[in-house]
Amino acid sequence: MPMRAYRASTAYAGAHISANMWLWIAAFAAITAVMWVLNWMSPNSGIWAHLVVLAAMIGGTLVMIQSQVGYVSPYAPKDDDEVITPAVPRA
């Protein structure tokens, strides 16, 4: 696959996920709940337990990403129009 097509496809997928973040969080929360019920009904099945944890990890990661939307770090670099001069001791 050519790199230009790969970058375009990943940019589109990333934009879709970030534009619909709450939908993806709700979907993974529902998937986690369904798999938890399946694991609860059959406690000897290890595959459901692994899938519960995987869906919960993805959902948790999406929640952490959503919590950072709009946050501006106090240590963020200044805008281009602000001149930053290093502190030089005066003699």
Class from secondary-structure proportions: mainly alpha
Number of helices: 3
State the share of residues found in helices, binned by percent: 55-70%
Radius of gyration (CA) equals 22 Å
Helix-strand pattern, N to C? HHH
Number of beta-strand segments: 0
Distance from first to last alpha carbon: 61 Å
Shape descriptor: elongated
- Residue stretches low in confidence (pLDDT < 50, at least 5 long) are none
Mean pLDDT over the full residue set: 78
Describe the sheet with the most strands: none
Strand content: under 5%
Question: Outline of this structure?
Answer:
With 91 residues, the chain is mainly alpha-helical. The protein has three helices and no strands. α2 packs antiparallel against α3.
Report on the architecture of this protein:
With about 90 residues, the protein is an all-alpha fold. The protein has a domain at about 20-65. Helix content is about 65%, strand content about 0%. The chain is built from three helices and no strands. The chain has helices spanning about 5-20, 20-40, 45-65. Helix 2 runs antiparallel to helix 3. The chain is elongated and about 75 Å long. The chain starts with a helix and ends in a 24-residue tail after the last helix. The mean pLDDT is about 80. Keywords: Membrane, Transmembrane, Transmembrane helix.
